[in-house]
Amino acid sequence: MTEIRSAVYGGRRNLFRLFSFLALLLLGSVAVIPLFPVLVVRDSTSNEVLWSHRIAHDGSFGIRWTHSIHRSDIEEHYRLEAGQIVLTRLRFHDYGIGMENELAAGEELVLADGQFEVRNMHRVFPALHLFIGQVRANHTLLFAGQELPLRTIGKPGEAVVIQAEKRSMLSELGGYE
Question: Considering only CA atoms, which of 76, 117, 77, 69 is closest in space to residue 93?
C-alpha cells in the first residue's frame, strides 16, 4: 500500500514539475518573441535607437520639413502595412523644383485649402533614410498628435533611419532591444 501511495505521489510530483516547466517555457517564449509593432528612429552610423514608440499594426505617422528652395512646408503622410512603410499622401504649397512631378497609377493631384496634395499614393519603403536638416529643413516627426523635431533627438546633419520593428514584451518592459 505504501508503494502504491509513493508511486501515485511521485507521478503527481513529476506531472507538476512537467507542467511548471512547460508554463515557464511558455512564459519565457512570450517574453522574448517579438509581438508589438514599434516605430523607431535610429542613428544610421551607430544603429543606436534615438527614439521609439509603440504603433498600431496599421498605424500612421508623418514627416514635415521645409523645402530649401521654396521655403515652404511639405508634409508626407505614412501608414504601416505588413511591417513596411507606405507613403499615402503628400502635401505641399509650391509646385516646382524638387517636387513630385509624376503621378503613379491611381494617384491624383488636387488643390485643397490653398495647397497641392497628392492623394491615393501607395509607395512602399522598408525604411526611410534621411539626414536631419542643418539649416532650414527642420524635419519633424508627426506622431500620435505630437510633433517631434528630429534635431531634438539627433544632431543636425546626422543620418537617421525611420523604420517599423517588432518588440517583445521583455523589451517593452525593460527597454531592451
Answer: 117
- State the DSSP code for 14: H
Output phi, psi for 22, to 5 deg. Answer: -65, -40
Q: Which residue has the cell 503527481?
A: 12
* pLDDT tens-digit series, residues 128-140: 999 999 888 899 9
CA nearest 131: which of 72, 81, 73, 63? Answer: 63
List C-alpha distances in Å: 88 to 34, 41, 108.
26, 20, 11
pTM reported for the whole predicted model: 0.76
Per-residue pLDDT reduced to its tens digit, 5-62:
555 555 666 666 766 665 555 555 544 565 788 999 999 999 999 999 999 888 999 9
C-alpha 150/C-alpha 133 separation (Å) is 9
Quick one: DSSP state of residue 96?
S
